Amino acid sequence: MPVTQTLEADVLRRQDPELAEILLGELDRQSTTLQLIAAENFTSPAVLAALGSPLANKYAEGYPGARHHGGCEIVDVAERVAIDRARSLFGADHANVQSHSGSSAVLAAYAALLRPGDTVLAMGLAFGGHLTHGSPANFSGRWFDFVGYGVEADTGLIDYEQVRALARTHRPKAVVCGSISYPRHIDYAAFREIADEVGAYLIADAAHPIGLVAGGAAPNPVPYADVVCATTHKVLRGPRGGMILCGAELAERVDRAVFPFTQGGAQMHTIAAKAVAFGEAATPAFRAYAHQVVAHARTLAAALEAEGLAITTGGTDTHLLTADPAPLGVDGRTARGRLAAAGMVLDTCALPHGDARGLRLGTAALTTQGMGDAEMERIAVLFAGVLRDDIDGRQAREEVRELTGRFPPYPG
Ligand SMILES: *Cc1c(COP(=O)(O)O)cnc(C)c1O
């Protein structure tokens, strides 16, 4: 298969065996452990081929038809295809596909709509807000005045009346909806109404669910938000990168906020790979995939709950779930370490109640590998067994190896 061919290519082996070894080692790690990190996926060999193409050589500052460099006639076509496919996939008037990452997309959205010092209402970091939603360690927290909303301690759900009350009190210039760990659908209509009530822009940071949106398995923020920021590498299964969707009236402001305000030359190999991923995401097979990802997350949540873990909101509508392992007598950090030793790779995350860290899991990568409900149930048993210490870590590691051996992410 192309991936191993690329990695084993004699060229890299001969020229730089040290790096060839590292790349193959990482392929082996990804193929023999369970990728439960909710933000990860296995992109296709076609996407990897575009990423490894000579488009990586091309300088292309500006936009198709208006570049600061010569020789852009072919990459212009690639970017136009990416834009058209994104617009049609998400029903957006305008798409900017140049953002280097999800965070750069959010930076550009703020640059398009806000001035330093403006007030922004976003989910608090302790409840699942992203770094770009006002962390003091991030540009967002330094340049804007963030007010955080939370989730209800008992249900784990967004309290829309609290969001409305905070908006009325603080009169933000923008309201941000989107999270790194919220397992339920977001009510974009409710956020739109709140933003309208106080004359704020609505920015949807749909980095996580955008792949489900593409597959019709989650509500589309495009009809509601002024600007939608997203990544292309999570459930959407494209290359690492970002994009921005908006209406025609903000198109020019958004484009100028990406280039020249926050970025230089576009990464044309990544843009071509985004186009390939958008093409894949428009197929019936991807639609089926997106629905399976959600079904598998529900199965995994129910199976972990049956094993005694406390599942935030009691389940999920999406590809991710968050769980408190405390009922099994172990804290989130210890749990992550023990699971990693057994070949189950995942993140800790904030939980709605208290300061204890929970666990965040997703099913996007497992589903791409072809795993199904039976595997989710088996994984839940292993997972809880390792945490309870009834299953020896080494034995679990062997079972994970056997399981992943049956579902290679890159067969051959
Ligand atoms: C993943 C994520 C981002 C950032 O994406 P990067 O590509 O890592 O910069 C931003 N916002 C949210 C809500 C995310 O989940």
UniProtKB/TrEMBL annotation:
Swiss-Prot/TrEMBL site (Plays an important role in substrate specificity) positions = 233
Coiled-coil residues: none
Q: Where is the Serine hydroxymethyltransferase-like domain?
A: 13-381
Q: What class of enzyme is it?
A: transferase
Q: Does the keyword Ribosomal protein apply?
A: no
User: Which pathway does it operate in?
Assistant: Amino-acid biosynthesis; glycine biosynthesis; glycine from L-serine: step 1/1; One-carbon metabolism; tetrahydrofolate interconversion
Q: What is its EC number?
A: 2.1.2.1
Alphabetically sorted, this entry's keywords are: Amino-acid biosynthesis, Cytoplasm, One-carbon metabolism, Pyridoxal phosphate, Transferase
Which InterPro entries does the record cross-reference, listed alphabetically? PyrdxlP-dep_Trfase, PyrdxlP-dep_Trfase_major, PyrdxlP-dep_Trfase_small, Ser_HO-MeTrfase, Ser_HO-MeTrfase-like, SHMT-like_dom
Residue positions annotated to bind (6S)-5,6,7,8-tetrahydrofolate are 125, 129-131, 249
The reply to whether Transferase figures as a keyword in the UniProt entry is yes
* An MF annotation (GO) of this entry: protein homodimerization activity
Query: What's the domain of life for this entry?
Result: Bacteria
- What cofactor does this chain's UniProt record say it requires? pyridoxal 5'-phosphate
UniProt subcellular location: Cytoplasm
One GO cellular component term of this record is: cytosol
Q: What does this protein do?
A: Catalyzes the reversible interconversion of serine and glycine with tetrahydrofolate (THF) serving as the one-carbon carrier. This reaction serves as the major source of one-carbon groups required for the biosynthesis of purines, thymidylate, methionine, and other important biomolecules. Also exhibits THF-independent aldolase activity toward beta-hydroxyamino acids, producing glycine and aldehydes, via a retro-aldol mechanism. Thus, is able to catalyze the cleavage of L-allo-threonine.
- Homology family: Belongs to the SHMT family.
Question: Which HAMAP family does UniProt cross-reference here?
Answer: SHMT
Assembly and interaction partners: Homodimer.
Name by which UniProt lists this protein? Serine hydroxymethyltransferase
Give the species this sequence originates from. Streptomyces sp. R35
Q: Gene name on record?
A: glyA
